[in-house]
């Protein structure tokens, strides 16, 4: 009976009490990773003063999993895109939406960073002296107490941050436990309220997930607070992962897009931002 309680009831309690199921699995707690204030980073130099540009989003690459990454196909596409696309559709930076490491191990972080270095090399050959890659933490990144590995090896070495481009504000959330926790959520609400720019938000866990609650933030109060904050404060787009499948939803005044898993779906997302029009257009591209 005690064993059954541990297996089925404890995870539910962890989810319900706003600590998140994966704290019980990993021992990592979002309140220990995020301070009460968001970290503000410089904008990517590659988009300085640009009115229209593109970026790549990958989700759930799970480096270290026993499955082919097909990174060669991705690198071939990236090289061709950098060489032949018009300036508006050449990628200027990459966002990784979490579950970088399959098991929270240093060797997996090293595999990811090797890919990042190859992309930066191709970009440099095509005139971009810098090519930043931004990451958010996913639940798999915390396995085996992987936060220590993540925060010292995966840029930008923090899990709750933002930057501002010409007109947009970009917010990167730590939802690796399936929750933001009270401190991060309260700080986010305050910052969204004060920030009048149109906004793009990146989160590993989905906020609403079109009602597919297995893959979204489970705490209904937290979820409702986020939806309200996004709807009231000019959030245009939310990019998410975790589900491994492509989904689109319109929720209140903003759109959600769950990006297909880079590893399990062999796809990634190319998004084009129009800073002056305040629009985000995206498409998923197969590397299979």
Question: How is this structure best described in words?
Answer:
This protein has helices at 2-16, 21-26, 30-33, 71-84, 106-125, 147-153, 181-194, 220-232; strands at 39-40, 52-58, 91-96, 133-135, 161-164, 169-172, 199-203, 235-240, 247-251, 254-258, 267-274, 279-286. α4 packs parallel to α5. The protein contains eight helices and twelve strands. The longest helix has 20 residues, at 106-125. The strands form two sheets. The chain has a seven-stranded mixed sheet, covered by helices on one side. It has a five-stranded mixed sheet with strand order 4-3-2-11-12, with helices on one face. With 288 residues, it is of the alpha/beta class.
Global mean pLDDT = 89
Structural class: alpha/beta
Tertiary shape: globular
Uncertain stretches of 5 or more adjacent residues: 1-24
Number of helices: 8
Determine Rg (CA atoms, Å): 18 Å
H/E element order: HHHEEHEHEHEEHEHEEEEE
Give the N-terminus to C-terminus distance in angstroms. 47 Å
Which secondary structure elements does this structure contain, and how are they paired or packed?
Layout: H1 2-16, H2 21-26, H3 30-33, E1 39-40, E2 52-58, H4 71-84, E3 91-96, H5 106-125, E4 133-135, H6 147-153, E5 161-164, E6 169-172, H7 181-194, E7 199-203, H8 220-232, E8 235-240, E9 247-251, E10 254-258, E11 267-274, E12 279-286
Parallel strand pairs: 1-5, 2-3, 3-4, 6-7, 7-8, 8-10
Antiparallel strand pairs: 2-11, 5-6, 9-10, 11-12
